[in-house]
Design a protein that fits this description.
The protein has one domain: Phosphatidylethanolamine-binding Protein (Alpha-Beta Complex), CATH 3.90.280. It is built from two helices and nine strands; from the N terminus they run E-E-E-E-E-E-H-E-E-H-E. The protein is 8% helix and 34% strand. It has 152 residues and is mainly beta. The strands form two sheets. A six-stranded mixed sheet has the order 2-9-8-4-5-7. InterPro entries: PEBP, PEBP-like_sf, YbhB_YbcL/LppC-like. This is PBP family phospholipid-binding protein.
Length: 152
């Protein structure tokens, strides 16, 4: 499938793209998922998936903090209770919920990519981030992200 980055937008009322995440969104100071606003979902989308990934983590494949499936394409806001309303998948800890930033002290600024994927087919089960990307890459109609930063 070709690259499509026309209309889908992801934003948050609580941080700007490239801006700092508040402590309450970090793992050890609240562990609350930041609310996200989603607009411009393509008509052909039947489901949205959300993945928060930190490529700066000192691990070979970075660190996945959040995986969320089963989000209807009509949803325009993901509140902090999204784990209860939709279908969480496993993060890098093996937990089925949002685990916020917790970079190693002194490791510097980390970037947290909150990806939203508009899909032309529903996601079956609760795949990991890697399984999702391998299985559903050809079903992504459009994708976009907002990036938050955090450091200890």
């Amino acid at each position: 499938m070709g690259l499509n980055i026309k209309d889908l937008r992801v934003s948050s009322p609580f941080f700007k793209n490239g801006g700092a995440l508040a402590d309450k969104y970090s793992m050890d100071k609240g562990n609350v998922a930041p609310p996200l606003v989603i607009t411009g979902v393509p008509r052909e989308a039947v489901e949205l998936a959300v993945i928060c990934h930190d490529p700066d983590a000192p691990l070979p494949n970075g660190y996945t903090h959040w995986v969320l499936y089963g989000v209807p394409p009509t949803v325009s806001e993901l509140a902090s209770d999204a784990d209860k309303r939709f279908r969480p998948g496993p993060n890098s800890n093996g937990n089925y919920h949002y685990d916020g930033p917790q970079p190693p002290p002194g490791h510097g600024l980390h970037h947290y990519y909150f990806w939203v994927y508009a899909l032309d087919t529903p996601v079956s089960g609760t795949p990991t981030r890697a399984e999702f990307l391998a299985t559903y890459a050809n079903h992504i109609v459009e994708q976009n992200r907002i990036i938050g930063t955090y450091e200890q």
